[in-house]
Amino acid sequence: MSEAEIQYEYSILERSRRNPKAFGELYEKYFDRIFNYVYRQTDDEDLTADLCSQTFLIVLKNLDRYEFRGLPFSAWLYKIASNEVNKHYRKEKKNKVFSIEELRVRELIEQASESWDEEIIQRLLNYLKDLPTEMLEVLELRFFEDKDFKEIAFILDISESGAKMRTYRALDRLRRNFNLKIKYDGKE
Amino acid sequence: MGRNEIRLRRQKVSSGRIAQHRNYGELMERHERDVRLRRIVKTFIYFLIIAALLVMFLIVRRWEEKKVNAKPQTGLVRTLEVSELNQPKS
């Protein structure tokens, strides 16, 4: 996202502080992305819709508190959405669900390996099951949402080096177990 | 170990299905309701604080009034005592 786009979004936010109706533009722009992000962590359409409206309500409520830190506004949205999902799982005391798109998984494997089959995908799923939640969160943001490490660090409330370390460790295990050549950015 | 449940699905949720859940008008209504509710709660809390301060003020005033009213009686007793002391013994 360019600097001009980030500034433009910030100007919308400034307007929204005086008139919340102005926020509609950002709502329309980001609703689908936040929906997909939350859906990937719930696999439940109605629950996702609830968590999404809760996310945007919190944003509207806290517009005055938003501080520009050189990151796109969407990072703040993702952070709130992530907190809402975690709050839901803490309340329900359930294991977290990660529902990933087969198409994207195939894309990633194709980029990283010349040959792959159904068995690799199944092994990969089993491998992901055993990964700690923190690593899965980082991988999701990195490879399914295409976020950079600065944004990931902000969204998950960790340091940038921490985000890099988690990704590196997860990918290192992948390389060793599956002979894949995935790099930080998901490309060979 | 299995800390998390990993599910594989064919593809993303379609834009059409997501659009069914996208409703800015409803969100604004909820937001305005929340703002109104917060305003009411805030007003009520201010009212409670003012009422508590008023009650405290009245209690203190009453206590001070009682104190002021009680003073002359004590003074009278003392005066009597002093005057008695000053009287020459017969």
General description of the model:
- The complex is a heterodimer of chains A (188) and B (90).
- Helix content of chain A is 70%, strand content 3%.
- Chain A is built from nine helices and one strand.
- Chain A has helices at 3-18, 24-40, 45-61, 73-92, 102-112, 118-129, 133-144, 149-156, 160-178; one strand at 97-101.
- The relative contact order of chain A is 0.10.
- Chain B has a domain at 16-70.
- The radius of gyration of chain B is 37 Å and the shape is rod-shaped.
- Classes of the chains: A mainly alpha (188), B mainly alpha (90).
- At the A-B interface, helix 2, helix 3, strand 1, helix 5 and helix 6 of A face strand 1, helix 1 and helix 2 of B.
- Strand 1 (97-101) of chain A pairs parallel with strand 1 of chain B.
Give the helices and strands, then pairings:
The complex is a heterodimer of chains A (188) and B (90).
Chain A: H1 3-18, H2 24-40, H3 45-61, H4 73-92, E1 97-101, H5 102-112, H6 118-129, H7 133-144, H8 149-156, H9 160-178
Helix pairs in contact in A: 2-3, 2-4, 3-4, 4-8, 7-9, 8-9
Chain B: E1 5-9, H1 15-21, H2 24-86
Q: So what's the overall shape of chain B?
A: rod-shaped
Distance between the termini of chain B: 107 Å
Helix content of chain A: over 70%
Proportion of β residues of chain A? Answer: under 5%
Main β-sheet description of chain A: none
Radius of gyration of chain A over alpha carbons? 18 Å
Work out the helicity level of chain B: over 70%
Derived structural class of chain B: mainly alpha
* Largest interface, C-beta within 8 A: A-B, 39 and 25 residues
Low-confidence stretches of chain A: none
Beta-strand percentage range of chain B: 5-15%
Rg of chain B: 37 Å
Number of strands of chain A: 1
Mean pLDDT of chain A: 86
First-last Cα distance of chain A? 23 Å
Low-confidence stretches of chain B: none
N-to-C SSE string of chain A, H for helix and E for strand? HHHHEHHHHH
Class by SSE composition of chain A: mainly alpha
Question: Biggest sheet of chain B: strands, sense, closure?
Answer: none
Quaternary structure: heterodimer
